[in-house]
């Protein structure tokens, strides 16, 4: 039976980070759940800034009305104004604190949502995506990009809103309080705005340069650390250190330039602010002498003028955090918009009791947009058979194995389990039916028991131990300090490659799939261990269909059937004895194998 499969080659942008214009919709969607909090925040910002800006006006009233009244023996106006000033200061302070708390709470909610979305999405995406995207980029999304968004939400947006509102309210208050002083301020705004524009442009360039250099530093570090074994084996430490030192020096230099730009901006902003204050004081002072202006108003005007330019620094700085957050949001949006090529079937076919019959029906396959690496492979494997895949390196053996486990989908043809196209089998059933044990035998942090139970999380301790016994790892585990509860990371025992492989065998044994796909480790075991692993393998492969990418002669010779893969085609197919007798490629491979074994012994 061949069920039509869902379209699997979903369109995907060529550059995985290029998704311009996606940042705003993403921001809108993550802000939606905290909408009411955002409105509350707006209200808090407006009231707190109004309270702060009221200060100088109250000073003016105090000096011009309260003091004369006090001189005439009436203290009430001054007390009222003083009380008002205190109240405004108190309200301004308390509400500013509330703004910080509210914005932090909102941003934490948003970030939690974003982190979860990124994690779920990276898990949902298929292997082909991860091979192209690389783990380094996934890590950057989950760390530095989310940090950039955090910076924007935590401080950037509220600081911008507070600063902008404070400037507007200050300017309006000054214009209302004293027109001429307001005019001086508005004139001074022109160089202030020009300076800020200059700063934005320079810091944008600077920011780009910093990002490029910072990315180089990170890539160099990650590459050296992931390849630390190769670095040490080939004594490349000095060269790596020199290359890294040069990159960090570049990083220091661009940071230095960025700080210089900040310094210039700060200097001129302070100058403009101080000159404005001086002009307001001079013009106002002359008017006070003429009796055209009250002293209190002059004091208030000076206070307003002094305050006006301070937030401009924050507005300038906001641009930096806005830019990095925008770039980060774009990359996050692009990641979240990716669709896996491997899609779940629209009409899943249940397969609760699989027998394990496999069929590769004229399968042609290539990775991503690359050339075909398997050409018209046509093989039928009856339930219960153990098939060894052999062939030279790069022939396509692992690819066949990965297609059977549906890590990828075929380009043409079909892979079928019990006659059902694997693209149509209900995903849960498929996962239970086919298990792949990969070469690297990855262990999660946790205990030995937890690692074995990955294959069946609801397994009892007795079942876990039975699996351990079946693959012959039980006695070894019993020598660990806490037996099956011993952690397998740096806090517990460090397992050798061969021991890790046995644990992964136990994991697969416990999962008990109808089909086991095994990419045999090339050379993780010494000769005395060989027999031990051979027995474990035989027990693991018994009573189920098995497709084994075989690297050891013992595995091949105990298989029911051997497929010789060359150049993406099956070129020989038969029992090991038949193929040896036939005198083809396998027979030559067999001879070479035997020769190398006798040479080693
Ligand atoms: N993830 C991948 N992306 C692109 N091409 C790949 C990928 N994996 C394998 N290939 C290519 O597919 C071809 C078959 O590779 P495959 O890993 O199946 O060979 P193999 O027979 O298992 O080799 P080996 O014995 O060395 O593991 C090779 O040409 C290889 O370059």
TrEMBL record:
Transmembrane annotation, as ranges: 38-63, 75-100, 157-177, 183-199, 267-286
SUPFAM superfamilies in alphabetical order: ABC transporter transmembrane region, P-loop containing nucleoside triphosphate hydrolases
Keyword Chloroplast: no
Domain of life: Bacteria
UniProt xrefs under SMART domains: AAA
Gene Ontology terms: cellular component: plasma membrane
Cited CDD domains: ABC_6TM_Rv0194_D2_like (cd18546)
Domain called ABC transporter: residue spans: 358-592
Compartments, record wording: Cell membrane
UniProt membrane topology term: Multi-pass membrane protein
Record has Nucleotide-binding as a keyword: yes
ABC transmembrane type-1 domain: residues covered: 39-324
Record-stated family: Belongs to the ABC transporter superfamily. Lipid exporter (TC 3.A.1.106) family.
Protein's name according to its UniProt entry: ABC transporter ATP-binding protein
Upper lineage: Bacteria, Bacillati, Actinomycetota, Actinomycetes, Kineosporiales
């Amino acid at each position: 039976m061949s069920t039509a499969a869902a379209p699997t080659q979903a369109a995907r942008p060529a550059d995985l980070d290029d998704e311009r214009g996606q940042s705003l919709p993403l921001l809108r969607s993550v802000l939606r759940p905290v909408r009411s909090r955002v409105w509350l925040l707006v209200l808090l910002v407006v009231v707190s800034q109004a309270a702060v800006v009221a200060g100088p006006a109250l000073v003016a009233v105090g000096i011009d009305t309260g003091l004369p009244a006090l001189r005439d023996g009436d203290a009430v106006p001054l007390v009222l104004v003083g009380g008002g000033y205190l109240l405004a200061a108190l309200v301004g302070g308390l509400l500013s604190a509330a703004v910080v708390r509210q914005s932090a709470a909102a941003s934490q909610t948003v970030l939690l949502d974003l982190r979860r979305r990124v994690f779920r999405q990276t898990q949902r995406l298929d292997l082909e995506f991860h091979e192209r995207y690389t783990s380094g980029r996934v890590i950057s999304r989950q760390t530095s990009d989310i940090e950039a968004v955090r910076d924007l939400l935590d401080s950037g947006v509220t600081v911008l809103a507070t600063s902008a509102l404070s400037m507007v309210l200050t300017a309006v208050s000054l214009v209302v309080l004293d027109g001429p002083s307001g005019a001086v301020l508005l004139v001074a705004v022109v160089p202030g705005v020009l300076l800020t524009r200059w700063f934005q442009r320079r810091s944008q360039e600077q920011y780009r340069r910093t990002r490029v250099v910072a990315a180089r530093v990170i890539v160099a570090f990650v590459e050296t650390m992931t390849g630390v074994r190769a670095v040490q084996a080939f004594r490349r430490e000095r060269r790596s250190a020199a290359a890294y030192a040069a990159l960090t020096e570049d990083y220091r230099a661009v940071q230095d330039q960025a700080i210089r730009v900040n310094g210039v901006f700060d200097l001129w902003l302070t100058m403009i602010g101080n000159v404005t204050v001086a002009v307001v004081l001079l013009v106002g002072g002359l008017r006070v002498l003429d009796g055209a202006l009250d002293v209190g108003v002059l004091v208030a005007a000076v206070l307003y003028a002094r305050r006006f330019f301070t937030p401009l620094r924050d507005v300038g700085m906001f641009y930096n955090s806005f830019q990095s957050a925008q770039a980060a949001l774009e990359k996050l949006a692009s990641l979240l918009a990716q669709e896996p090529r491997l899609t779940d079937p629209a009409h899943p076919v249940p397969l609760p009791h699989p027998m394990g019959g496999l069929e590769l029906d004229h399968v042609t396959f290539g990775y991503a947009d690359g050339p075909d690496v398997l050409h018209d492979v046509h093989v039928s494997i009856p339930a219960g058979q153990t098939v060894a895949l052999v062939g030279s390196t790069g022939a396509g053996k692992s690819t066949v194995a990965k297609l059977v486990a549906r890590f990828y989908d075929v380009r043409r043809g079909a892979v079928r389990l019990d006659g059902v196209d694997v693209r149509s089998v209900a995903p849960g059933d498929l996962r239970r039916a086919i298990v792949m044990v990969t070469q690297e035998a990855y262990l999660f942090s946790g205990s030995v028991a937890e690692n074995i139970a990955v294959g069946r999380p609801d397994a009892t301790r007795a079942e876990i131990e039975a699996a351990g016994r079946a693959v012959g790892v039980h006695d070894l585990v019993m020598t660990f300090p806490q037996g099956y509860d011993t952690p397998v990371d740096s806090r517990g025992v460090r397992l050798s490659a061969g021991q890790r492989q046995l644990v992964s065998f136990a994991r697969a044994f416990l999962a008990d799939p109808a089909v086991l796909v095994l990419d045999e480790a090339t050379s993780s075991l010494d000769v005395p261990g060989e027999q031990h692993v051979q027995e474990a393998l035989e027990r693991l492969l018994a009573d189920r269909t098995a497709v084994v990418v075989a690297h050891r002669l013992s595995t091949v010779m105990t298989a029911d059937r051997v497929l010789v893969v060359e150049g993406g085609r099956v070129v020989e197919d038969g029992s090991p004895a038949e193929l040896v007798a036939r005198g083809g490629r396998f027979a030559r491979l067999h001879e070479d194998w035997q020769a190398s074994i006798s040479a080693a012994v």
